[in-house]
Amino acid sequence: MYTVDEQVVDFVLNHADHEQVIDVIELSFRLARRRVTSNSFGPQIGQEAVDSAIDELNTRFKEHGIGYQYESGEMIRVDSQLIHAEVVKPVLNLLTAEEYEGANAEFLKAFEHYRKGDTKECLNECLKAFESTMKAICTKRKWTFKHTDTASTLIDVCFRNGLIPPFIQSHIAAVRTALESGIPTLRNKLSGHGQGAEVTEVPPHYASYMLHLTATTVKFLIDSDNALT
Predict the structure, then answer these.
(1) For residue 168, how far is the Cα from the chain centroid?
(2) Contacts of 213 (CB under 8 A, 6+ apart)
(3) Is the pLDDT of residue 155 over 80?
């Protein structure tokens, strides 16, 4: 009889496709993190051991050109190492703050949908994360808004209250256009409304663009909020 560990290894080596392998790795590392604070799933292990294993996994993936990294409890598809290092990872760190819990969950969900090829839902979760970030900032700053406000209205609130630093006022119009016509419009045109008799497909490169645009914009918003006195 195989042990549970042996069954998992056998499944990965002999039966699973690449998506199932990624799922098994993700689940295994989630379980390892649980064992840092609990012995319900086996003997407890140290945080340093888990962190070391994650670092080794990500290094091996990078060395062999496998386009995934394990971040914030999720296997995240990496289309560009530079964008991932300079934008995605910093955003994931910023979103760990308690006030951004909703935005963090939605952003990670967008990556999950993207990895599994569900590009329409990826766009939806990107928009949710974008809106949740602005709502969190408005709540923190006690700026008046409605919880039913859409992205366009929330952008107006953020601009009216000086979220954008005064010394870059000349760029406000360009930034505002990027925010309004980038994330909200692309999502609305491709997946936010009824598609009629003809099925609308969202190409993967659109979803990739949306993920990185969302990451860049969310980082910009949070950094701008942190810069306010």
Answers:
(1) 28
(2) 126, 182, 183
(3) yes
